[in-house]
């Protein structure tokens, strides 16, 4: 049911109208005659260069946030004529970039060169004339294009080029990888197919920026920043959008007054910081739910260890998790980003192992006793720190390289580490991914999880101090275990699958050589065949890895892989 205008007046208290006023009337001069339109680019490599491969995490966030503030999200009729649409938009200002995508309808993201372009559009946009319903007159940068004059292209002659916002189905991926020439190429190819595109990243920042406009009704100096896989370099198309409502700007804005008199704000007191976070999220969540266009299915999960509100943003198709007071997670995202930027093999291995884990049911969308993507990523980083010579440095070393500006203490935890990527010396590890992939599986297939814990700060196993089956020390809150949720059964499945996969990836290399067609899944592709299929229709869990290996061995006999038998026997013996 649509909220009445009377309900909306409740919102007058916070700065809703002031905010709208600002959006409405800040428009400056009309756009110049020579408007420039830069066509949407899809090339991943070019985008990587565009964003400057070695940009620090915070420079990246700032640049992206600034781009998003100059952008609009516009729902378009499916028969929109792209050329006319651009011509129309260009009357408001120079356009830096635009693209179209589909999600419950057709949408365009338009980034102006200057904020004035956005103000100009908003100044001229009108409220819809509703005949049989009421609506909250909340104005935002999510708009609808009305095409009375523009929409003259019949559907059959659609001229819009849509950019894909979802990842390739795994079966198509398997086929694609099977055609690659080497395992190294397979890992890079998977990364390229699954990683977030330039446009998807822009859309993520734009959604944060749109939500910030809503939260700014209450906290004008707040910001909403993406964290997690949206920004850490390991995001897969379709991953959730983790957001952090940052109110730090508010406290930092207050200058210290050294005068006889000074004034301070009266604030409502709460018993704990957690209680304040809960009430902020509850109110912002309510506001997003009631007034945020396109935001549906609001769930308030305020009693979780890290309180959050969860909802879907329909125009982007993103599942959103909004948290507050979660600066450590922001630091973890920065750390993962840094590791991913140091060496291209890191991202390729993490993407591939994450994909393998998802296909084999080691990770899940449903919360539970599974390993999470975050846990898996930390495990890959640890493995790469343990190589000889190490591929990436330990966190303690990154801390030593930190400059004065990098100092960071959050809730008493030292979260300092270098942010300038150029200060981190390139390691001289030259191992191929073809070598590293089975080594990763070997490493964890034989890891003594009963006695040892994983610590990327030290890059060394340590003696376990708690009873959890899997102990991975939180790099910043060192007394915490990031994998405390994982139970013994799930850990055992992970270990068994590692053992099996170490063997399988090597044997499939043999299968590839014997397959002239390139259609047989081999190498990484073979690891992405879901277990149920690999066991010829038998239900998951009804076959032990040993019996599965036996079956696979028999199927491989026909592929004349006599030379490999010694390796297989050795692998079986280890188990
Ligand atoms: P996806 O599965 O693609 O969403 O990966 P993700 O890295 O975004 O993971 P998730 O959405 O579960 O969590 C978002 C971020 O929160 C992570 O990237 C971490 O920075 C942080 N995080 C998640 N789980 C933990 C945890 O158990 N401990 C700590 N310290 N941080 C966590
Ligand atoms: Mg996430």
TrEMBL record:
GO terms for cellular component: mitochondrion. Its cofactor is Mn(2+); Mg(2+). Residues 435-478 form the PAP-associated domain. Transmembrane segments: none annotated. Residues 183-341 form the Poly(A) RNA polymerase mitochondrial-like central palm domain. Residues 56-125 form the RL domain. It holds the Pfam family MTPAP-like_central. Residues 554-575 are annotated as: Disordered. This is Mitochondrial poly(A) polymerase.
